[in-house]
Specification:
Rossmann fold, two-stranded antiparallel ribbon, 20% strand, 7-stranded mixed beta sheet
Length: 224
């Protein structure tokens, strides 16, 4: 199954791509509108891809169907995780990256990004991907399946820049979840760039400025 996506093309022929995954119950439209706010230079030809998650029953939502990258059983740190759903979505995102490669954008020119549940997938897929990516961005999220982290990860992205950001007032995905994930990644010597902002489960203007600077830093060396 290929994921339906919103695609925003640059003014020039695309040389880079950002694949940005939305959160639980949302859609690709959630973040498509922020592209102009990033104020990326026209000289950096970046294609933005905002895929829509498939609709599936979500246990946390009393089994009612909603757009979700995987099932959510609970919001506690010890809650069961949907291994099968995470791995199934991983395959869809890998296919999406392969499509970009076929269109002339190699993995090294791709940033895999996501917010909340989408950020969890960005971390999982990015760190298990066998080819080096330009960067991994994880906003207001956590590292899923952390109990087995390190047993199946690929070396290709061990030095890839990881941008993690979180709201200090987030009650949906508590800051402590992200901090635990950050510590685990740093323990395994991943280069995490960490930022917090006085906000809840959302994004803010200061964060968008930092995201823009980080995206440019990831692509700038390749572009020069």
């Amino acid at each position: 199954m290929s994921l339906e996506s919103i695609i925003i093309e640059p003014k020039q022929s695309a040389q880079f791509a950002v694949i940005w995954l939305h959160g639980l119950g949302a859609s690709g439209h959630d973040f498509a509108s922020i592209v102009p706010q990033l104020r990326l230079p026209d000289s950096l030809p970046v294609r933005f891809i905002f895929p829509h998650a498939p609709v599936r029953p979500v246990t946390l939502n009393m089994g009612m169907p909603m757009p979700a990258w995987y099932d959510i059983y609970g919001l506690e740190a010890h809650s069961q995780q949907d291994d099968a759903g995470i791995n199934q979505t991983n395959e869809h995102i890998v296919q999406l990256m392969q499509t970009q490669h076929e269109q002339g954008i190699p993995a090294a020119n791709i940033i895999l990004a996501g917010f909340s549940q989408g950020g969890a997938i960005a971390l999982h897929t990015g760190l298990h991907y066998p080819e080096k990516l330009a960067g991994i961005m994880a906003l207001s999220t956590y590292l899923p399946l952390s109990e087995t982290f390190g047993t199946r990860t690929e070396e290709a992205n061990h030095a890839t820049s990881i941008f993690m950001a979180h709201g200090t007032g987030d009650v949906t995905v508590p800051l402590s979840f992200a901090e635990t994930s950050k510590r685990l990644l740093k323990k395994h010597r991943y280069p995490v760039k960490w930022r917090t902002y006085p906000m809840q489960h959302s994004v803010c203007p200061e964060e968008l400025r930092d995201i823009s600077a980080w995206i440019q830093s990831c692509f700038q060396t390749i572009h020069l």
